[in-house]
């Protein structure tokens, strides 16, 4: 399974990356803005959100191509959030995935605008692409946009980022930590699963299962992030290990200890997989993808 | 007409402002983020973009309420662009409409996130609201979102802002100046007109006329802005007169002279009104609104 998962991840990553640059507009866009958008969009990464969209379509035996615009839109939103998070006024990071951050390469003003433009393009990409695709009902398109906006905006990812910034240097309890991570990381994963569900015409019980799976792996993703910050390999991670402890940042290991964090992680992955099995999706790639969230080393 | 236009503007501004705050989400949003979004959204302004949406619906005898979500979304996008433009890395402004800019009130990180959240909310507001409104076809909603994204993003407003920043301190010719202003200012006005047209079920010739009117008043708006920066009243404008000349910024008066700029302004307003008259819309409020763009003193 590890070998076939590895192949699966490589194939799907290549498939997604083929579609990302063509999904940007170039004609009529100032060259520096376009280059800045492309730079961050193509700077690597796990492509987990688009991969989940494709895996849902696959699981429900629908054509993968149908998921491409929504998958690319999710990756654009994820990318814009990283560009803005790295800004001097936010986390002030110079490196991202071992490369200079967007504002280090292009300057702060361009980085802000590239983020704004990627966020805007995510929505227009969905609207334009599905308007021209007879396989997807306009109502489905509107639902996708409502879902994405809710999970990416003030009630979702942006809200999580705000809470994270406000929590810096404060003693957070587990409830506050979970609020931050559910929104900052989990919500966009849930959007991937639910959006995939809309596109694949999932029935109500499948939709509930996909949503629950999304919440579980989102939560698990963050626990594993925190664990890797304690005992990961700096080279594989591309960032410093121990930085959370140095900054006295609230994390799962700092609040629960490493052992209990690992137990929670295991339980969440089991819960995610059980939810899928209950609606007959135990043979889909979503099962090994849940394990991947737990077992990843970067 | 001046008196009745004044009443019209007051009534419509009040109507729009009643709907803006309820269009934000509050539940589940960190309080500081919500306050920051509300602060800039309610900091005044002409509400020109939402007003144009309502005027199109009125002109084509459709219920105003149908335009409210799209009108509020436009104002959110306009507001986010002002918040981000005022940031230290961009124009570095301390005051906006006589009040402290968002980052002066809430800090830079919150201002960046409030902008991101307003931009995201614009799209989810349209999607959610029209999904629940049987008067608006889902296809229309998808068209509205495609239109808004195209005019607000890299090919539109964000592209214009990028070109503006890159043009600073350089000698621009009229073509470059017009590129900047068409995108930075004009495109969102065009989106208001065309979006209004979609919502009002305008026919093809009406749609062409509305689009042309939008381009003309967008262009006129910017010429008048430049003229006011030469001979306006600082108190009414709420900003310093002569700042463009001090910064050696390319403007219509600096490239064409004041007289020719005024002639162009007149010609554009006439062209905008003629376009409407040709499709039988000579009695709509869009006619005095075109004059307002020319005659405004702030």
TrEMBL record, chains A, B:
One of its GO terms (cellular component) is cytoplasm. It comes from Brevibacillus panacihumi W25. Keywords: Isoprene biosynthesis, Magnesium, Metal-binding, Transferase. It catalyses: isopentenyl diphosphate + (2E)-geranyl diphosphate = (2E,6E)-farnesyl diphosphate + diphosphate. Its cofactor is Mg(2+). Its EC number is 2.5.1.10. Belongs to the FPP/GGPP synthase family. The lineage of its organism: Bacteria, Bacillati, Bacillota, Bacilli, Bacillales. The keyword Transferase applies. Gene3D superfamilies: Farnesyl Diphosphate Synthase. It holds the Pfam family polyprenyl_synt. GO terms for molecular function: (2E,6E)-farnesyl diphosphate synthase activity; metal ion binding. GO terms for biological process: terpenoid biosynthetic process. InterPro entries: Isoprenoid_synthase_dom_sf, Polyprenyl_synt, Polyprenyl_synt_CS, Prenyl_diphosphate_synthase. This is Farnesyl diphosphate synthase. The keyword Transcription regulation does not apply.
